[in-house]
Fold SH3 domain-containing protein.
Amino acid sequence: HEEKVIFVTFKTFEEIWKFTTYYKIGIIGHCMEKLLLDPTVWLSSLVEEITVDVFIQEEPFNVFYRSILIFLFVFQTFRAAQRKLYIQCMYLNSGQSFAEYVKCSLKFGEHLDSFCSLLLLARGVCLATAEYIAEGPDELSLAPGDRVIIVGFLVPCFDWFTGRMEATGEVGLVKTSLVKPYPCCIDVCFCSTERKKNIQMILTQVKQSSESEDCTVDNNGTQEGCKDLSPICFSVHPLEVRNKSTQDFIPLFSFLKGRDYREELGLVYGLSTEVLTSCTFTGHSDEDELIAFLDVARETAKKKQLFWTQTRLCYLLGKLCAGRSKFSQALVYFEESLCVPQEGFADLRLLASIYSNLAAVHALQKNRDRLFAVSERLVALLLGIPDCLKSLEESSPLTYMVKKSILSHNQKAEARACYLLAKHHWECAEGEQAVPYLERLLVACNAAQKSWSFSLSDGYLTLGGLYNELHLPHLSVSSAKRASLQPSVTLSDCLGSMILVLDIVDKHCGMSEQETSVLPLVAPYLHQGLVLTKVQEAGSMYNHVLRYQLTLCLCQLFYKNKMVKHAISYLQSFINNSPPSEPVPISVLEQNSALIWLAWLHIDNNQPCIALDILDSVLSSMPENCTTLQKGVVLNMRGVALGSMGDQLRAAENYQAAVNICQEDGDLPNWAVAQANLGLLCLKAGAKGLAQRYLVRAVQLFSELKEGGHEEEFASVLLELGLHYVKQELLDYGKGCYEWALLLVTFALLFSDQLSATRHLCHLYGRESPDQCQCLIYSQHQVHILSSIGDRAQEGDALEAISQLYLSLGTNRCLEWDLEYSGLGIFIDLGCKEKEAYGWLKAGKIYHLLGQTELVDIYIQAAQEVALRTGDTGFILKLLEAAGDIFLNNCQDQDKALTFYRDRALPIAVRSSSPLTRLRLCNKLTAVMLGLKMYEEAVKVAQTAMEISVTLGDNLNERVACYRLASLYQGLEQYEMAEHYYLRCLTLCPTPLQFDEETLFYVRVYQTLGDITFYDLKPSLYLTWSILYTSLPASYLPTSTSYPPLSTLCQPWLIL
């Protein structure tokens, strides 16, 4: 049906991109479940699978999206007059010369050999196919047939990869075009080298070095684990006091020397320019002095042939110059640092830092060619050694990696790049920037044919946490649900999803801990946790305790949402499946608590006999002479069960025994409950005085409790006591109890109990002790509670009740408020057509009362359209009649009532064969025509009304029809017919008359007959009617003195 269609409108390309991304990672359906379904559906879904599946015809959608993009590119092309971009766009549109387009725009190089088509992401060993002489210390020289071990990953779409010579152990960059796969070279999936790590651990452990093979290179000096290193600090000596010796540089040279990587060097590589200037180097007046000092140190190291010291000094100088926006000078230093070493780079963190800073400078200078060349080398290091990610200055090389992977259709390389980008932004505390790459990573994982070696559940949980930080609760909850549905989900993932959902609700909904603990949203995670604890064999004792806790939580959820049978099933299953032969890991107290809870569920499910058997078994297992807190609870519940079975005497005995035990043990909460149960039992038996005493005592005990958690029971007792006071007409005491209960549950954030207390107060001020002002206040509070709960149907009914209160007040201000509380919007949202139609009609009536006639017809027309869409003839007829009633008693617009009664409602009533409705419409139509002096047409309608009344045997309506016919004939000056119908009306007079109004009616009839006889017919008859009038019994005569005495009426005749 068209009214059930959901239309999705996209305003920007970003919204289209986000929608498709959410669809591909599978969270749109869960978002729809959260928005459209009632929360209790999550509980029902445990029994029968209930999901919202979203399907998109991706091919037409992609064509549409691509055509819009092409149009946008063409438009921008013509605006910028860039013909070259237009040609490239045409290539992209036609799908032709795609490789050439990629080469020109991203500098792929000239190699696209068979190796690229064989493997997308490779590890293992490869063979050199041609001779190559290294052009710098960062590269490896090759000879045909050399075996090169791939460090990390080899991605064919990139120009370089990190390799290690099998013969010498040297590590450096190798051109991808110069190698071919060795038979043992394998194609791998993303993150296969980090099988023992999940994505969330990797993203959060920023300072932990990778322990995998691709992160550890022989002789590179990388240390495992992190050490607490003291801050590094060097003194800068002024140039004017510095002699020509190298004594001032000894600490600096000692720190920077050596080929291999050290952890303290890695700390320096990652420092910002500000930290280097202010903390690492001290004693200088400004940055120029520091740069001059380091430059002299560089020259000294060069003279002494301290190549690695010189290389690191060039790096520091380049970084300081770049920080001062001296990019040309920075490039000189960085390029020098790449040329100084006489042997290959063993400190690959230093090499990555140099490349990263070079890429940053080229990006700022918009030197695209050199940026791509440096990015290629940096990407090779990042693919080989993820620890080099800490050296990254900005994300443009990784962005380049993503773009090139996408254009090369290398999904695994794209996933790896997205993973590195997400990790980089996470380490930089840029969670918002990490979200799109983590989303893209999950898209690649879902689209892959092979399984991925890292946990998708961890990826979704990480994404859900980021959504939560960005205040996107629906996406966060959907991510948690998606994490729990993965095939590789574990018990920790399931519990992590539940914790994330509870955190989201607490953060964005502001609910208390007590309300949050019973959220239906967590039901699927509790159920899945139960399933996972059953399939896990290891740690069975721990799993049994966990199953106990999860089962109780689920039972509480079912009980709170009135699904008691499901709660009984889960709890009974847990008790039956408890290990009989092994020592039970839960205590006897917890076992009895489970049985007592099961008994209560049976009582609530109207199975008191089963509950009594369970309670008897618990009671028999307790020592006879030992009183425990549970014994008082069991006796109290036995009283409840016996009371449900009708055995009030035994119930009272158990309640009293529970009171005695709780009093002896000082158990105030159960003592108060037992007293309240005794009071309710006395109320049921009719002992009102005794019941009041017990209930008051229960209230006293509850008020003495210092700990929380008993507000719900306390409020229930107060409401029962207040109801008792109201029935005894002690209204002030009743008000006090109701308001006390409302305060308790308001502070405890118990919305359902707030609703109950508020309804009691509304009933009190609406009927028992009428006070419209107080009734309005509590009615509005009731609406606020229902809005917080999310019960839209009851909220609409409450708004409608408030609207009726304002309408009864009748002032213009109240009528304006009435429009605000109509509840029309809620009825529209819920699809309640009848209430929606009456809402439109009521709004039209209010505007009619306010005199805004230009809006009346609009709202009434809307009401008619809604009613017609229902297709219910009876409802349409009622609404049209109600629309006519709006104008019935209005002298100015009575003709509009004629339209609704005669032209619209009456034909439908005739077709629907509804004589009562037709009679009612004829009576109203006659009254309207009589007011408009349409006597001739009104006679026909009144005649029809009289015929229907005779057919139905309705004496009252027949009298009314006769009287109206007489009045109409009198208006038409047909006095004989008027006299005839007046006389017929008198013959239908019941004996005796029951009401004063009925007596006055017949007095008017007699008076009218007298007037007709005296003035219009034979005067001699007037005396006859006078005699008849005087012969009326005293009981027939009206008590009112508003009419003149008969002698006054007869005086003109006596004179004659």
Remarks:
- The domain at 801-913 is CATH 1.25.40.10 (Serine Threonine Protein Phosphatase 5, Tetratricopeptide repeat).
